[in-house]
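pasting for ref
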Amino acid sequence: MINPTNRVLILTNIPAPYRLPVFEQLAQHVALTVAFCESEDKERQWRVDLNGDRVNYHAFDAQPIRLTNGITFVRNPALGDWLSRHPFDVYIAGENFVNAPSVLAVMRAARRAKKPFILWSENIDTDFASGNFLSNSYRRLLYRGTDAFLAYSEMAREYLVRRGAAPARIVRGWQVVPPEQIPPPARQARFNWQPDPDTGGVTIAFVGSLTQRKGVEDLVRAFQAAGRPQDRLLILGSGPLADALAAQAQQDHRIVLAGYVGGQQRSDYLACADIFVLPSHHDPWGLVVNEAMALGLPVIVTRAAAAHEMVDGAGFVIPADRPEAIVQALSQLIDDPDLRRGMGQKARRIAQGYSVERATQGFLNVILSVILNEIESSRRW
């Protein structure tokens, strides 16, 4: 039912390197245009090449709209005219609240063209964040004009249903990290911070922004309770808590702050770890879990990170904002090398299933659902 002449638009926030291979593969099945509300995220140190072989990429100039209550939107002044000159058969928009003006513009363009509109969502509810009156009102309006939904996790599916999306219209999608973005570890020599192998020391790794939302302070407290003198806590990332964490590291030589690292260097660091922890208070997914599991690490992930659904015995899923739960999980893994080894092997197998092909199939499934619905509607008339 899907053919290469079907013109599909995807509007999303920024060019994310882990998504481009999915778009390139999707473009083998449809005539795909991907439009970005912003050409880059200044808070992320990504380098992205938009010279795709199959995809027509378009990045719009962006203007911020700052409201008196502190909420900021991003507006794309040229989008409306561009949509009027570029018709599509299927319209898809990522559900980023900051991009609400452009998401609504795409929905209106679909309505004018009498074509299906799909909302692609990864939002979740947690105790840390579950939207506000304005964002939830916007979503109830948006969902009424949506023909189908692509939910990027089970938590995202539940989020949609709680706000009025019909369960039958929700199709599951998948968050993946393309394998070429997880280079095999290359480093052979030891880092000077690594535990002495004769002591049986264990390295616990964290990767992410150093913010309260990521729960890194919970991890530090848990490590100081569960870690032994020969163990190490490796923290990879940057952010507003960096100075406070550096002060703690000066008092505890077992804590290692390496700053932001990516690509080959990140694989090399993670290859030196024995356990990976993502203690987030709120995380719509947590792609670092995919990376750690692909490298064969057992993981400890909170239920506030949607990526916890992929753990499935390859580690521990624990409550958020509970350092004592991290202590318990860490203690079990530190004390049991065989448990770490078995969970790490399972982690690698699970991660292999989170492939670009699987993510592409999610998009194809939701596109097919609206095409079939169009055909059925035309038959009824």
